[in-house]
Amino acid sequence: MISPSNRFLQFVIVAGILTVGLNACNKDRQVCLTPKTASMYIESMHLPKDTSTVEIDTALPSAVFTAITLGGDKSFQYTTPSASFTLSLSPVADSCVWLLTPDSTGTSATDTLTFYYSREVKFISNACGFTTFFQLDSAHTTRNNITGITINNTSVTNNANVAKHIKLHIKPNF
Amino acid sequence: MSLISGSAFGQATAVDTAKADTTVKPKIEASHQIELGFDMGCLAKNYLVTDRVGYEFLASWYHKNEIYWVAEGGWGNSTVAYPDLSYKTNSSFLRLGFDKMLLGRENLKDWGGMQMGLRLGAAHVSRADAQYTIVDSTWGTTSGAVSGKSFVPVWAEITAGVRVELIRGIITGWNIRGKFMLNGKSFNDLSPTYIAGFGQGDKNSSFDFNFYLLYALRWNRKQ
């Protein structure tokens, strides 16, 4: 049988361990583990032949995307060939413009991509704060290297496991 | 010869022990008790965590069958002052439930031991206007405000702990709690960082620890 004094000692020890342990977990602000930026996923593709009905991925050799912002142009270069790209939409306006140069090492022409959308401010968590989600309305492009643009998924959020939002149809002879 | 005698003696002892085990231990039923106390763990948390303050009190009533009916209440507030998010909250709460002692008491003066229990909790939370900033390194920074709001979170708890009577009528005890929000989606637009009695408001479950000091009033105690 445990004597009252031993029982009280055990009690104090467990209480002390629990107090220290639980309060060690109590940080003032938790670490944000959720993506904070809503990303728009784009894939480039083309018809291999004029008679083809199924498009295949088109790897752009060294694509450069340039955002036209109020603070000036900001470029992002893909240094390896890629058919999948990630862009952001502007949370300060209901439309935004990106310039696309498919091959920055050559003399390929630049196309202008324009996106129109609605915005929704969304609370993620106290650790991450707020972000902006988007609902795509329309997308437009010039036709130097691109034959067309298709919206495949209108909902642009911080969820990375979603279908590509935009399909860029590249000219077959690019 | 001595081995045979020893064996026979051992059998006789075993039979006696078996008879003793079948004796039903009389149930000791203590009389009524009311306890009033507060959570000393809150004082430690208030000291260690800088962005929130909380206080918790409890009252329990022992009627019979080693079950303590429990009412817990308190209040708290928090201040969120991050670079990209700021607001204040005030909340008060009430939890009702019971604790069941896991082992029978050794005698009428035994008011300690291990216990488990269940609670149903509810709080009234008032959040003031919140200011937020969304930083986007490409497009620029946006700021805005979210209007203040009041809401009533409801949750369930399972508790387990130990209590010890230090001196007659003065009891201390700790328990750990698993808390599970029942209506967490009702305030997803901006979950409060702290709900008194529950903990972190933007999670649907939380774990907590209480370290009580209680004063017990007893009457009609059987001698």
Radius of gyration of chain B: 26 Å
Greatest chain-chain contact: A-B, 35 and 40 residues
Biggest sheet record of chain A: 6 strands, antiparallel
SSE-based structural type of chain B: mainly beta
Helix count, DSSP H or I runs of 4 or more residues of chain A: 1
Mean pLDDT of chain A: 86
Low-confidence stretches of chain A: none
Distance between the termini of chain A: 87 Å
Task: Indicate the overall shape of chain A.
Answer: elongated
Order of helices and strands of chain B: HEHEEEEEEEEEE
Mean pLDDT of chain B: 84
Strands in their spatial order, largest beta sheet of chain A = 4-3-6-7-8-10
Helix content class of chain A: 10-25%
Q: How many domains in all of chain B?
A: 1
State the assembly state of the protein chains: heterodimer
Number of domains of chain A: 1
Q: How helix-rich are the residues of chain B, as a percent range?
A: 10-25%
Any overview of this molecule?
The complex is a heterodimer of chains A (174) and B (223). Chain A is mainly β and 174 residues long. Chain A is built from 1 helix and 11 strands; from the N terminus they run H-E-E-E-E-E-E-E-E-E-E-E. A 6-stranded antiparallel sheet of chain A has the order 4-3-6-7-8-10, with no helix packed on it. In chain A, strand 3 (64-69) and strand 4 (72-77) form a beta hairpin. Chain A is elongated, with a radius of gyration of 26 Å. The mean pLDDT of chain A is 86. With 223 residues, chain B is mainly beta. Chain B has a single domain, classed as Porin (Beta Barrel), CATH 2.40.160. Chain B is built from 2 helices and 11 strands, in the order H-E-H-E-E-E-E-E-E-E-E-E-E. Chain B has helices spanning 2-21, 40-48; strands at 32-39, 52-62, 67-82, 85-101, 113-127, 130-134, 142-146, 149-151, 154-167, 170-181, 205-219. Chain B has an 8-stranded antiparallel β-barrel with strand order 1-2-3-4-5-9-10-11. In chain B, a hairpin with a 2-residue loop joins strand 3 (67-82) and strand 4. The radius of gyration of chain B is 26 Å and the shape is elongated. In chain B, 31% of the residues are buried. The chains are: A mainly beta (174), B mainly beta (223). Chain A binds chain B through residues 4, 7-8, 11, 14-15, 18-19, 22-23, 26, 28-30, 37, 67, 69-71, 74, 88-92, 96, 121, 123, 125-127, 129-132, and chain B through 41, 44-45, 48-51, 80, 82, 84-85, 112, 132-134, 136, 138-140, 142, 144, 146, 162, 164, 166, 172, 174, 176, 188-191, 193, 200-202, 207-209, 211.
